[in-house]
Specification:
- There is one protein chain.
- By secondary structure, this protein is mainly α.
- The protein is built from 5 helices and no strands.
- The longest helix is centred in the C-terminal third of the chain and has 34 residues, at 67-100.
Length: 101
């Protein structure tokens, strides 16, 4: 496999690097030169690899969320808040009645 083909294969493992090329932070030429001179394990590529690992970790967390359980918990919290709000409004009504006398 020649350098260009290995570079293309490497880029497929870190698609986030495209964002920096699109935003004109780097050019494809600059990235290719870094790749050919220093290799894919150079410190230049570490932030991209870490970002990808962070995204994968986030996706694993989201996959493990029990959305039915979360919805049930939120409904319970909503009921409690409604009860507290109801009690507070009753206290407010008493205060207004008392203040009017």
């Amino acid at each position: 496999m020649d350098n260009l083909e290995s570079f293309k294969s490497f880029l497929k493992t870190i698609p986030s690097i495209k964002d920096d090329v699109v935003s004109k932070k780097y050019t494809w030429q600059q990235i290719y030169e870094i790749y050919t001179l220093y290799g894919p394990k150079d410190d230049f590529f570490k932030p991209y690899l870490n970002r990808q690992n962070d995204q994968l970790h986030f996706m694993d967390i989201v996959k493990n969320i029990d959305f039915d359980g979360l919805a049930s918990s939120l409904q319970s919290i909503e009921k409690v808040l409604n009860m507290v709000n109801s009690l507070m409004s009753k206290n407010d009504a008493k205060d207004h009645w008392y203040d009017e006398k």
